[in-house]
Amino acid sequence: MKKIILLSLAMLFVSSCAPVLENRFYYMSYKPLNDEGIQVTASPSVAYEYESLGTFTLVCESGYMTKKDLKRRDRGEDGVYSNQPTVSNRKYESANAEDAQKTLAQYLHSINANGVINIRMQYLYIPKTSKVTSVIITGEAIKRAIE
Fold this sequence. Notes:
Structural class: alpha+beta
Mean pLDDT: 80
Largest sheet: 4 strands, mixed
Helix content: 25-40%
Oligomer: single chain
Number of strands: 6
Strand content: 25-35%
Low-confidence stretches: 79-87
Order of helices and strands: HHEEEHEHEE
Shape: elongated
Strand order of the largest sheet: 1-5-6-2
């Protein structure tokens, strides 16, 4: 009887530590950037003349926003969100590629960029869940020569 119990515990211990196969597929459409007039490519170079404005890294993290700030964001108002969230007036917002690209478009317009080359995107998530904690976009901001 003692051997059966030990064997059962050993099997339970080994099976609980076994890795579980996980497949994740994340897709990023460049439509939000294209809609803002920004040409995007994952290639490190392009066949047309351009001026390199610099490299960038944009990190969008999940977190709490106040309902007032959500309304301001949805109306497209700029500015720093200054309201401190409280328990009753906040909402958890998950980072996502579309919002990250809209934010990126604002930054690119502020430096007069109209293109991005060598763009890369990464999702950070909590293991064993589908909860995205951050979206990271990197690349090189360029100004295309108008022909």
